[in-house]
Amino acid sequence: MEITDVRIRKVDGGGKLKAYVTVTFDDCFVIHNLKVIDGKEGSFIAMPSRKTKTGEYKDVAHPITPDFRSHLQDRILQEFSKQEA
Fold first, then answer.
1. In what order do the strands lie in the sheet with 3-10?
2. pTM (2 decimals)?
3. Considering the chain, what is the average pLDDT of its residues?
4. How confident is the model at residue 29, as a pLDDT?
């Protein structure tokens, strides 16, 4: 599966949330509302989620393997860095 497009929408609020991201795969499948978060050990991505009846958040979509999560995060953060420059 190839990441064919990454769109970044920066958030100007001064908080930990830095951007919302839309990722397209193979020019035929899209996931909206991934987030770039500024953490204690650097930036990372958070998957789109929804709040359950019990108040906890559950991911709506997420990578199955650590390798793909790393690949996805690296690509998103690379695109985010380009916009920062």
1. 3-10, 17-25, 29-39, 42-46
2. 0.89
3. 94
4. 97
Locate 85 and state its tokens: 């420059």
What does the block give as tokens for 30?
């899209």
d(Cα 13, Cα 6) in Å, to the nearest integer?
A: 22
Q: Is 14 exposed, middle or buried (0-12, 13-18, 19+ CB in 10 A)?
A: exposed
Burial (Cβ within 10 Å: 0-12, 13-18, ≥19) of residue 69: middle
Percent of the chain that is helix, strand, coil (3-state, to 5): 20, 45, 30
pLDDT tens digits, one per residue of 43-84: 999 999 999 999 999 999 999 999 999 999 999 999 999 887
